[in-house]
Description:
2 domains, about 5% helix
Amino acid sequence: MSEAATQITLIGTKLATIGMEFTFFGPTPECDTCKLRNTCINLEPHHRYRVLGIRGELVHECPIHEAGVRAVEVAESPIIAAFDARKAFPGSKIVFEPVRCDETDCSMYEICHPSGLKAGERYTVVEVVGEAPEECPCGNVLKLVEFRR
């Protein structure tokens, strides 16, 4: 797996555990007047991150997190998704288009349309992880692929 760029941000002290993954959804209205706003909301909305390290013991007050926030080092998490097998080559750079499918009740729908991947954005295929967990009912030939922005 390739290394992602790391950055420092603030997250709730109860969430500040090495290895913990979270999706950043963006600021809330309470963030508008916070003096730590620029440090706390410096991540990309709707992207997944993994905590790689804790920076010091200092806890800052926060109107959102009851126990306050603390500084952590994070990196964007790779995303595993079902992807067109014909385009799944390690190292290839692609413009992501999700599998064409409207079967929202399909057991693979979430892996074919994972949170964190946006249609039209550029990603790198880091690794072809393996076969899709089951055959696509729409007839798509799929592989499980690890993507990184």
